[in-house]
Amino acid sequence: MSKVTMKDIKKLRDETQAGIMEVKKALEEAKGDEKKAKEILKREGLTKAAKRADKATGEGQIYSYIHNGGRVGAMVEVRCETDFVAKGDVFQKLCKELAMQIVSMNPKNVKDLLKQDYIRDSSKKMEDLVKETSAKVKENIVVSKIVRLNI
Fold first, then answer.
1. E strand or H helix at 69, and its extent?
2. Which domain holds residue 67?
3. pLDDT tens for the chain, residues 1 to 151
4. Nearest to 102, CA basis, from 146, 144, 133, 151
5. CATH classification at residue 27
């Protein structure tokens, strides 16, 4: 078994935003293999995210994005459990990616949006991006409403 160092833990933690003990456990389970440890963290995070799916989402943000010289734009309502998460960089990035997806791919409703391939990585669906973000911030995240406008 490969010895896991603090340097290894810090590097993987910086990349994944997972907790120190979660990272250490994943690296130990993966015998020091960083790629396998990332897969373990992702799997564990998604499992934990699924357990939070019934938590109330009373906070969040309405995020807007305007593209193409003001000729097309989108608004998306994304909800989470706390205002702390809603104001955080990880959540804000998700909101931006969702709004850009709406502008680019013109989904008809939230269900269609979540089933679409992610414009930056076609190996992922938008619902995967939401679940991954939920796992990172350790809160339930729900995309509530979308609107797309164009001239």
1. none
2. 59-150
3. 467 888 888 887 777 767 777 778 888 888 888 888 878 877 776 556 556 666 677 899 999 999 978 999 999 999 999 999 999 999 999 999 999 999 999 999 999 999 999 999 999 899 999 988 988 888 899 999 999 999 9
4. 146
5. 1.10.8
